[in-house]
Design brief:
The structure is a homodimer. By secondary structure, chain A is of the alpha/beta class. Chain A folds into three domains: about 60 residues, Winged helix-like DNA-binding domain superfamily/Winged helix DNA-binding domain (Arc Repressor Mutant, subunit A, Orthogonal Bundle); about 130 residues, Aspartate Aminotransferase, domain 1 (Alpha-Beta Complex); about 240 residues, Aspartate Aminotransferase, domain 2. Helix content of chain A is about 40%, strand content about 15%. In chain A, the strands form four sheets. The first copy, chain A, has an eight-stranded mixed beta sheet, sandwiched between helices. In chain A, strands 12-13-16-15 form a four-stranded antiparallel beta sheet, covered by helices on one side. Chain A has a two-stranded antiparallel ribbon with strand order 1-2. In chain A, helix 5 packs across helix 12 and helix 14 crosses helix 15. Chain A is elongated. Chains A and B meet through helix 1, helix 3, helix 4, helix 5 and helix 6 of A and helix 1, helix 3, helix 4, helix 5 and helix 6 of B.
């Protein structure tokens, strides 16, 4: 009989493995007697102790048994069938999985994954080696003093205190440390909010357009997502479901500081109207404060939460933009009445976040490193933004919106129908430039064609090259025969929009 | 009028803050004109640029507006009501929250939280400073090379490969890297499994007793939890709901390597019967492999998953026991047919785990540090276990079970009813010793009194002191008048169990 030793681990373990396989495959049948250890050792040129150890292990596992004075026998063991070569796909076991399978994850490609030399995907972090050197130092130190035991579910107290202080100083948010819950990024924060507040078939309002990751979370929880349009002053609050409607929305999700992805700032009047709406309807507001720290024309605006007197606003923040997304750290500032349930949900989800990172983050905020990095990154982003704006300016068909803040800007392509926009994206891809449609961020396909330009992940020189390529692609595909660069200032042009394209509404 | 500068941040931000508050509180009414910047600067002894910056900020936020040539005016702003002093508790917004609020989290006290000098709480990590020095080095290095972008949702490829290799070598698990999903600890792994596989009102089998954290996860997902007893060979598979029953369980959750908390090893015959049951009923098996690496009398047994030929076993592992729970790292080895859905659920939950820790963990496994630590910790645990066993041996009322593996052992207290057991725990607490009842791990209150002794978190000397205290408490409270230490060997004793206590069944 063949006994194949697999070469992994000590010899007695290898022998036990080989005998086990022989028993399970039926090559050693139940009731058969194994050779005496001395004999087996000679056959296999192993030491007798090795054989004894292997037999002992198999006995402990129940594969063999010893009969006193008579030797070692193979036990009654069901022979294994070989594993099927192909596994049939599993029918969706739950409604949750049905909803999960309906999502299109193709948008989640990471920058550069398709080999683009310059990928202007949104969500890329600012590339700054100094940050990782600083983070390494802080993290390494935290590894020595952080508590190795199960974490506090709501977050490390030192981090909650540092966050309370930071939020008061920079975002006008007046929150006690025990109203703050540390989470594994805004995505988990939103998941917890959905789990706690949204029942299947509840209706939930999203801005249209909005961040697709938030929509996914709500849809997989079974919410009915209602899109409400945005304009230059953010969410059009007057278009929220009327107070007389049969069922109030459970949640209204907004990005007041910098509407995602179109960039408007929610006006003060709209903020107050939204808070009044939530108080009257007893619904909750989620304030996604994803990139408020990067603002180029004025100070960051105080958060919506700072105006909330009814305990209706759930403020969600993340370090994915200010530091980097691989960190997986964010926070939820909860209304007092929801803190207990959100902390319990976090506890059930994962017992709390990793302690060393939380301790490092607390130190990073408290010693000023975090805000120093924000200032530095803000300067870098401003310069990168300028390059993109300069690259887009010559193109008459391009209308930039929402460039006053953040790490990306949106641009409408006037006169581009969907096919032409796709052709532009495809052409750019062949030349190493990744540019991305705004369409996946809409609940319903948008009537206009637009692109999002993420500029955080590329240096100024790379962006200059990227915008050069963009210009070439535009000149190859722009709908007008006469190129924008040839136009005299003030010249009146006959304008013939492409089929299906609409102007700004 | 008073303008209180809060001393936080630059002066223009402080002035803006103070003016904003005055507007929201109605002290500056809408339509009123602000002093000209020069005048305001003189009044407040600030530079004029400071005032201009503050006005500009408030204008951007919509609190004031400029009329050309006429100055700056307060806009129409809803005055803020003061925040209510006490927030009324929120009625449970969802069924999930109703279930969440029904849980008793008091068991989650962390070791030492109540001031016990020696806390024998389960779940404490092995205290080894060398581990943290090694981890610091690996983590710091990973901070420099890990990808800062959004992580791979299923886990860092290098870590999945290192895990596949480790699981094959140490646990007999033959899994491809793409069948492994990295999660934030076993708790998150179980949460994902429940979300994907369990519909509200589905029935789910747990061992009785079992790990309370798993029960919580299943109950909050709305599962009906069915307890099936265990004996010396683990789960009594014959007691699973009969094949003729109207509704199969969705999941059967087991701890085959070391039944939690009673310590039995699931026998080979039972393993095969369980796999056959799952194949026939098309239900899923969760194998919680929480502490299999620490085994004192034989090699660790191969995982149940290694026998699975039908793709029914979901193997869940954690680094909380082998390293430390503050790490929040674990993994799920999924049957091929469930991989896609579990990865999608992980993506929706948090987009994936933190990258630096995953990169460090991959390195820690690949360079042998992980298994070196396991060997060292195993030696330390063996010595600690000996101290506890020696401390329990003199007490005739104590019957130790499940001590051949792991980081804790269970002990029945014969002749102790619930009140006497509680008195023992309370007395020990007054003397600085934390010992813990087995009862919270039962679905139904157990008929016997028992304790769990976690010994991982205390050094040998501490455990010696702890067991000394335990002995004093036992002598003070043991039901028999004659103390065990006074008994002659072989002496026959009249045995009168206390009311309500039952012998081993």
């Amino acid at each position: 009989m063949q006994l194949a030793m697999n070469g992994h681990g000590p010899r007695h373990a290898q022998l036990a493995h080989a005998l086990r396989a022989a028993i399970l495959e039926g090559r050693l049948r139940s009731g058969s007697r194994l050779p005496a250890s001395r004999e087996m050792a000679m056959q296999l040129r192993l030491s007798r102790n090795t054989v004894i150890a292997a037999y002992e292990q198999l006995r402990a596992e129940g594969y063999v048994h010893a009969r006193v004075g008579a030797g070692t026998y193979v036990s009654e063991v069901e022979p294994a069938r070989s594993r099927p070569a192909r596994v049939a796909p599993v029918a969706a076991p739950t409604r949750y999985v049905e909803r999960l399978r309906a999502l299109d994850f193709s948008i989640l490609r990471r920058g550069g994954d398709e080999g683009a030399r310059w990928d202007m995907q949104i969500g890329e972090p600012v590339t700054d080696p100094a940050l990782f050197t600083a983070w390494r130092r802080t993290l390494g130190r935290a590894a020595l003093y952080a508590d190795p035991r199960y974490p506090h579910s709501a977050g490390l107290p030192a981090l909650r205190e540092a966050l309370a202080d930071y939020l008061a100083r920079r975002r006008g948010v007046d929150a006690a440390p025990d109203e703050i819950i540390v989470v594994a990024g805004a995505q988990q924060g939103m998941g917890l909010v959905a789990r706690v507040l949204v029942e299947e078939r509840d209706s939930v309002v999203l801005e249209e357009p909005h961040y697709f990751g938030l929509r996914w979370t709500l849809q997989t929880h079974g919410a009915r997502v209602v899109g409400v349009p945005v304009d230059d002053a953010g969410l059009v609050v007057e278009r929220l479901p009327a107070v007389s409607a049969a069922k109030s929305p459970r949640l209204v999700c907004v990005t007041p500081a910098h509407q995602f992805p179109l960039g408007a700032t929610l006006s003060l009047a709209r903020r107050q109207a939204l808070l009044a709406y939530a108080a009257a309807r007893r619904c909750w507001i989620v304030e996604d404060d994803y990139d408020s720290e990067f603002r180029y024309d004025s100070e960051p605006l105080p958060a919506l939460r700072s105006l909330d007197r009814d305990g209706r606003v759930i403020h969600v923040g993340t370090f994915s933009k200010t530091l980097f997304p691989g960190l997986r750290l964010g926070y939820v500032v909860a209304p007092r009445g929801l803190v207990r349930d959100l902390v319990a949900a976090k506890r059930l989800h994962d017992f709390g976040g990793p302690t060393i990172e939380q301790a490092a983050m607390a130190r990073f905020i408290a010693d000023g490193s975090f805000e120093r990095h924000i200032r530095k990154a803000s300067g870098a982003l401003r310069a990168r933004r300028e390059v993109v704006l300069a690259g887009l300016a010559p193109h008459a068909a391009v209308e930039v919106v929402g460039a006053q803040a953040g790490m990306h800007l949106a641009a409408w392509l006037h006169g581009f129908d969907r096919a032409r926009c796709q052709a532009l994206i495809a052409l750019a891809r062949t030349r190493g430039l990744g540019i991305h449609s705004i369409a996946p961020h809409y609940l319903r396909p948008p009537r206009r064609s637009g692109l999002l330009f993420g500029y955080a992940g590329l240096a100024v020189r790379e962006l200059e090259a990227a915008m050069q390529v963009f210009g070439e692609c535009m000149r190859a595909l722009a709908p007008s025969r006469r190129r924008s660069s040839e136009l005299g200032r003030g010249q009146v042009l006959p304008f013939a929009p492409a089929r299906g394209a609409k102007g700004k509404t």
